[in-house]
Predict the 3D structure of the following.
Amino acid sequence: MAKEAQKEHNQVERALKTRHISMIALGGSIGTGLFVASGSAISTAGPGGALVAYIGMGIMVYFLMTSLGEMATYMPVSGSFATYSTKYVDPAFGFAMGWNYWFNWAITVAVDISTIALIMKFWLPNIPGWIWSMVALVIIFLVNALTVKAFGETEYWIAIIKVVTVVVFLIVGVLTIFGIMGGHATLLENFVYKKAPFVGGIPAMLSVFVVAGFSFQGTELIGITAGESETPEKSVPRAVNQVFWRILLFYILAIFVIACIIPYTSPDLLGSSATDVKISPFTLVFRRAGLASAAGVMNAVILTSVLSSANSGMYASTRMLYSLAKQGYAAKFFSHTTKRGIPLAALVGTTIVGLLTFISSVAGPEIYMWLVAASGLTGFVAWVGIAVSHWRFRRAFIKQGHDLSELRYRAKWFPAGPIFAFILSIVVIVGQDLGAVKHMNWEAMGVTYMAIPLFLIMFLYYKIKYKTKLIPLDEVDLSKPDITKE
């Protein structure tokens, strides 16, 4: 397995620099979840409830990233946690985890290019939306087909745009809170308005955990990019260590600013959606400060965010399909790479799936909605896989007589970190639609929780067919590739 991992690491182009990895990690956690969905979180649970939920989810994501960082610096491969699940848990677990994650991002690409068509209507409402979706898909394909560096540079500059937007928003927001811009100083009055700061109790806060979880999905791309990093032992720990503080700065402060300026009872917050930039909380705050062109600017920023999500999704799903083929979990054809190290066959295969899914959104909306629903929980399932794999990796590492000083990067607060992440991920998965569970609405439950039986079917299929077993800790393969050699 170590030789295969070494061969994989040498076949792909190691062109992602430390600045790329850091910005990809940041870009993965800043998107429509922050720019738009944060408004509905405040509306649902109040300012205090939203802040508690996002802080809790931020801590969980930090622990997950440190777990992933420890394994990724020990063995940097494009298969990331799917490969670790195979090596440290059970081949059947790795098989299901890999296909689960590929499916997640392949469908997400289709969702994102559909969203791009809706966003473009803001400027050009008379042009058919499918044209913009096709243009976006072609651009994303070309960026991923050129070089790894092209992908890294694209994500880097898109992330820069998002960072600048958030920083400007925070500055304008603080000035508005104190009445320096926008007239009336709100200070903390909206934190004690009516039922604030906590609205709806624990159930409302739990529902916001779900929103926050979707907002933070994409941070695990750190593990995928490690396989093509020039110096994973340096870039991955740096990116991981910055995740927590970035989440704290960009999410917690942004939600605090929004909550101070806009009361949780505002109907605009309740109606927040990824396709209506006019009621994005960022747009509302900018307008309150007297910036009339806010909607156009925020629409452009949200457009870049969705493009970034689709671009990252194409990259992640392509590398996962490539890795699955390398491990024998997918057709060998998908393991072929170009001279520049691009897994072109896997890229074409993923693009075709994304294209067919997008076409279904036009030709058969019901099929499309089921596909989207089926991918809904796959990101959280991947997080569970990261926590389980790290738990098993560290226990096997110690049991086989290794010393923690051998690790180039060490996860924080083990074993509390992965245990906390595992439990909270399960809570969020179960809490997706408690109303449907309570009222035994089988159709709603089927749509919401479809990803779980799909994962179990893949797991049981491989386990029964190949009669795999949980790998004993003293038999876990801890050999690692020498990434310093070509």
